[in-house]
Amino acid sequence: MSVDLPEVIADRRHLHGLNATMLSDQQLAVTDLFGLRNQGFHSAPGTEEAAALPVPATLLVDRDGTVLWIDLSENYQRRSDPSVVLAAMRTHFDP
User: Fold this and answer.
1) What contacts 54, CB < 8 A, 6 or more positions away?
2) Distance (Å, whole) CA 56 – CA 76
3) For 44-55, what is each residue's pLDDT tens digit?
4) Its pTM surpasses 0.85
5) Is the separation of the CB atoms in 55 and 72 below 8 Å?
6) 67 closest CA partner among 12, 21, 26, 30
7) CA nearest 40: which of 25, 50, 54?
8) Of 26, 93, 94, 39, which is closest to residue 66 (Cα–Cα)?
9) Quick check: 54 and 37 in contact, CB under 8 A?
């Protein structure tokens, strides 16, 4: 999830090597549903218009919407290592 506009997300994805689909959540509606609103220091760049940011997190969600696994990051620039996510997927999903 990102507070960026969809067109900004699409334009900047390549800068981070992202292939995953990203959700534009400017009003933090989905962020709040998962309890992931950053209640601490607002670390957005000076040009960021969002009142808050999501806590950096990686979630595995099943087709029913149940969160099976979550990994939270203290550093907004870091996400779960792919090997950690793959191990969680192997644990929670059938091969």
Assistant:
1) 1, 2, 3, 25, 28, 31, 36, 37, 38
2) 5
3) 554 556 667 788
4) no
5) yes
6) 30
7) 54
8) 93
9) yes
